[in-house]
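Researcher: Sit down with what I've pasted below and flag anything odd:
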Amino acid sequence: LDAALLGGGPGGELDEAHALADKASALVSQLNSSATSALSSINKLDGDKFKEAAAEKAWRYVRPILIQIAISLLQLLLLFLLKKLIPPFLARMLNAVIGRIESRIKEPPNKAVMQLNKELVKPTVDVVRGKADATFSKMQALLEALIKVVSLPGLPL
């Protein structure tokens, strides 16, 4: 996307960028509003500790996503401003620096998402895997018993 934007010609690109940035900003606002209302409605229910813990974990999951969206929007706006003000070779160099900074900024939220995945998804997958292993071992024993019955001499098959 960055290379395509740097190589584009003049015209309505800046207007398109502003429209895109406005749409993305509205989306971030809606997402933030939805997350906040969901968390407040969860907190209103019975005040149960489990629900509060779930709301906290949900917010820990949503917050890094919102941060990454905001960073991407800022990078996009900076790119369009620099495209109009700086020669192309300097813009490419600056874009590389922005990419490095972006990867450093995204590292903590990505680690947080991986940690939440490990805490929330892995135990569930392990339970399902254990039940599937138990079921398939029973099915295998049943199939082996059927094969023995079918292979008995004197059965008309």
